[in-house]
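User: I'll paste a sequence; please echo it back and then give the predicted structure.

Assistant: Echoing your sequence first, then the prediction.
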Amino acid sequence: MARLNVAHYVARMPRFDTVLYDLDGTLIDSVRLILDSYHHTLRVHGFPPRTDTHWLAGLGTPLKAQFADWAEDEGLLAAMTVTYREYNLTHHDVAVKPYPGIVDVVIDLREAGCRTGLVTSKNRQGAGRGLRLTGLDSTFDLLVCADDVERPKPHPEPVHRAVRELDADVGRTLFVGDSVHDMESGRAAGVATGAVLWGPFAREDLAASSPNYWLEGPEELRELVLGAEG
């Protein structure tokens, strides 16, 4: 009697049945636009410029966190937020594009039966704009945006909320993101984390956040979730 190749079937069993995604730097290449939006905002409001490196350190956190130095002046903070969003939305559709291959993988995982959620520090309007541009606006079962939570990433609240509303098993949920804030949020929420290396950050930038998995390209995400032969 031929021996049953159990390893073959195990390899094909999905490791995760719920996949949560960050947006900027993970699904869409919007980082240059984000940085330009910050630079534009400081110019308009008469503040000295800050480097790309400064703004990148806070990538993945909401505008209120990035503009924390002006948070005590609520009127100024509100005006800076408006300036940022107006510039960002004006240039969005020309400057933003999906990372190669990621749209097909997200759709394939959804069609394979995975629950899907977006967990982003963007507000709902901005997130919807990015999803429509990539054709992913009807792909997600749930959106958790900055205006849906009190404590955004790196706090676990956004991931906790996604897991709860999707009725997901924490042990079979993967959070895919590009920043240390994504990894910290996912780890604190008890889900597995996958750090993408096609975004703005290199492995050495993310190593301290101890992701469970490293993803060099979108195809590796498909293999991770579904198994190498999935």
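The chain has a mean pLDDT of 92. Residues 74-95 form the longest helix (22 residues).
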